[in-house]
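user: Please supply your own:

assistant:
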Amino acid sequence: MTHYMNLWDDSFCAIKEGWKTIEMRLNDEKRAAIKIDDIIEFTNTTTKEKITCSVKNLYKYTDFTELYKNHDKLSIGYKENEEADPDDMLKYYSKEQIEKYGVVGIEITVPTPTYILASMYEGPFDKRTVEMLRRVIKKRDCFVIIASYFESYELTDKFAKVFYNKFVEAGFEFKTMAVVDGRMSHEEAQRTVREADFVWISGGDTPTEYHSICEYGLDKVLREHRGVLMGVSAGTLNLGKTVLCPKSNGYDQQQIYKGLGCVDITVFSHYDMGDIAEDKLELSNTYDFYYMTDDSYILCDGDHKEFYGNIYYISKGKKETICQDFERKEQARA
């Protein structure tokens, strides 16, 4: 479940910087509904910036004096040179309110996003892919599919069903599934993606998809997302720092643009294990990139990268094998 709270700028920044880990609140009806592993979306009242956190623990006390005794001042938002005084909370809550409801310290973490870059899956997920998904999918409340073509509703619904069923068949059924396309307003699309536990970014025409993502304001939402984001084909390319669309991929003119930058790599999908096109080799003199076959994936989780399938690293016209014959390898290549 997702909860929404406002924060003053100093508290918001302290959470974003990672040193304030306890949010102090009155334990009223609204806060009593919060459970461990729930999500809280904080909004900076000054800048309107938002940050999503997960609830790690809940500490309930009779008053703020007791809370202050049990937590160091940095964790509750005081700097080293500031005095931590429980009476500071009287600015926000009266003594009568504190006596009536008690108080709660909400321990929060800013989750690290997980990115899965895949090529395509014509059939079911194989055993290794299912094992990887089992490791990274922590919550199964909401599964969201971002369409390739925001106005092609019939095509979108057809493929949304096909790909979501792959997850269901692999044992990953979510409470709700939503498709984000032109049938939603910009605000509804942003809210839907923001609240998702797992976001699938579809394949299709790469620049067209990116244009729709930006038009709907989803680029910022995806960059700030703290759940699992999985791209296939065009979705994978658009997650990268630089998107390369050469003529050999079917474009009339070569296109190069900045991607979402969620990951620090550039990728090509659908490698057929044949010779690499000359224009791609030429691009590798300026842009290093990975090339992967279908049913392969690159998992990016913090500084950790995991490679599975048939994946090659192309730089300065040379091809380096990362993994092949559907083996799995781990490394931390920038």
In short: The chain has two domains: 2-109, 114-331. The chain has eleven helices and 17 strands.
